[in-house]
Amino acid sequence: MASKDQKFNKYDLEFKLKIIKERNEGKSYRYLSEKYNIPQGTIKTWVHKIKQDGALGIKQKGRPKKSETNYKERYEILKKFQDFLVKETLNKK
Questions:
Q1: Residues 62/52, Cβ–Cβ less than 8 Å
Q2: SS3 of 22, please?
Q3: What is the pTM of this model?
Q4: Mean pLDDT of 6-33
Q5: Are 13 and 56 contacting, i.e. CB atoms less than 8 angstroms apart?
Q6: Dihedral angle of Cα 48, 52, 54, 57, to the nearest 10 degrees
Q7: What is the rounded end-to-end Cα distance, in angstroms, of the chain?
Q8: CA distance 66 to 75
Q9: d(C-alpha 83, C-alpha 75), whole Å
């Protein structure tokens, strides 16, 4: 977990790909970490994302957006439901 006032480094995509290429060529995480002064966990995360998604920085975060729904269709369903509720309340009396 990030601590208060912790600073995060931003690395450009070319730099990340360069390190991932070296990792795929057989260099160890420790060697790359010491060479570029980057935490091993960060490099492991980049490699994992490449394997999982096929690219870095493409996958969107958060809940996927819902597609546009047909509001007329939803309105008709709601209208039918309201009619049903009215009939049910009249039948109970």
A1: no
A2: helix
A3: 0.57
A4: 91
A5: yes
A6: -70
A7: 60
A8: 18
A9: 12
| Residue percentage of the chain with pLDDT more than 90 | 44
Q: Which alpha helices (DSSP H) does the chain contain, by range?
A: 13-24, 29-36, 40-53, 71-92
| Number of neighbouring beta carbons within 10 Å of residue 19 | 22
Structural contact between residues 34 and 22, judged by C-beta atoms closer than 8 angstroms? no
**CA–CA gap between residue 64 and residue 53 (Å, rounded):** 16
In contact, 43 and 19? CB cutoff 8 Å: yes
Please report which helix (H) or strand (E) contains residue 8, including its range. none
| Gap between the Cα atoms of 34 and 80, Å rounded | 67
pLDDT at 52: 81
